[in-house]
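Entry 14. Two folds queued back to back today. First construct below, sequence then structure tokens.
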Amino acid sequence: MVRFRLTQKAAAPAIGDRCVRHALRFARCQACVSACPVEALSVVNGKVTLAEDRCLSCGDCLFVCPTEAISGITPPIRHYRGDALVAPLSLRAASTEELLIWHRLYQLRAVACNIDAQPGWALAVARLNLTLRRYQEPEWRIIPPADAGIDSSRRSLLRAQAIETRSARVPSGRRVLRQLYPQVSGWLPDIDRQRCQLCGACWRICPEQALRAEGGRFIIESARCTGCGNCQAVCHHQAVILNAGPREDPVRQLPLASARCASCQQPFLTWQQGSTHCPTCQRHQHGMRALCC
């Protein structure tokens, strides 16, 4: 007789193949490493590794990962009533990134907690409000928790409050934040035109199309960027600049010119009208490219 298990062991936390450090040799992203409160995540030989015995499954790493590469961890379930998060609250307060998602998806504006007993949540709200000011969004507040005692005169009121309390978990990742706050750029890519050779590596590798060339323009759309750093990892000329926001940053369109190289006869893009030789031929003596490339 075959016996079936009614329960399955939960998958262990792991870093998947979507991690940019697994895909690109020179990737420098370490968002999850910086977010982890217990140093369960680290970079070893260029790859992100996760120490399962240290992991708290708090989910902080999930909300900062630009490629949703972390598995085996789910965002925590939280409880809310009206426009406030309520008890039971987690011992570790939610991150700013998670609270920003609650702010927009559920229109929450407060945390019900005792500041003296749960100072971490008070600090989390203070940090959140600093970001909300930059986003020009309403700020959160700390409100006193509801009386947890039960007496006969208030039994019906407490029952009504229990019915109104709901539970949920929010989706995680920088892509979610980008979709919820399209007016604000969390990351600000830019191009150093003195270094850029317009080889196309950066816009081909960008999974969000924050960098792209179309219609004779080099387009930089910061609101799409998740800060994965792929563009920097593949740029051999170190021409890509990636600054942290948040900031309002309109779509920029930099004019390009098309030309045909007088040496190799190949078409190429250039920043300047009237260019006669492609960057590759400019780096070689006359006639050498045909022999070596």
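Second construct, same run, same settings:
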Amino acid sequence: MRKTTTTINPALSRVISETGHTDLIVVTDAGLPIPTGSERIDLAYRPGAPAFLDVLDTVLAELVVEGATVSAEVAEKSPEVLEALRERFADQDFEIELIPHVEFKALSQNARAFVRSGEFTPYANVILHAGVAY
């Protein structure tokens, strides 16, 4: 369910509009494997661009989120990413769930769509659990 109209990418705008309560949207770095047959919105155009957090901020400006899941490995390998995620979700009614990367990849198999950034920071991925605006 959309909140605003900040994205001009037609595929991303469509996916956000079509996302329903409890659907999963994965915002990824450049390296996360995306299952064959899954909807992929590939925004990457060079290493590092667009940045993971830029893509995430765009999605969060429009998508109601009731949960977020990340790989537990991010805490050790890329703590700055985890801190940035905690800042973005600080005013939400949920805690970020940390699960082993193997489980993260398994859970992502159920995603409605994957939004790929050009990020080259390890474990810069998040599964967003869509909420409702009412």
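Quick look at the second one. Residues 10-130 form a domain with the RbsD-like fold fold (CATH 3.40.1650.10). The first strand starts at residue 24 and ends at 28.
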